[in-house]
Design brief:
The chain is mostly beta strands and 65 residues long. The chain has no helices and 4 strands. It has one domain: Enolase-like, N-terminal domain (Enolase-like, domain 1, 2-Layer Sandwich).
Length: 65
């Protein structure tokens, strides 16, 4: 099995009100969605967020078809 295709999409999702932490004031949640397709047709998705919804640590989401 070999990687046949990689697609990336930059996501920017605005907060309804700014997220204020001890060091920053966030107005947008940013992330990257990556889709990988193999030569056998398998697909995998990965979401990497710069900051999680609550502002603590970076978050990951993975899904496979």
């Amino acid at each position: 099995m070999k990687v046949a295709q990689i697609e990336t999409t930059v996501l920017e999702m605005p907060y309804t009100k700014p997220l204020v932490t001890a060091t920053n004031n966030f107005t947008v949640a940013c992330g990257v969605l990556a889709k990988v397709v193999t030569d056998t047709g398998m697909e995998g998705l990965r979401l990497r967020r710069s900051f999680s919804a609550d502002g603590r640590n970076a978050g990951n989401r993975t899904a496979l078809d």
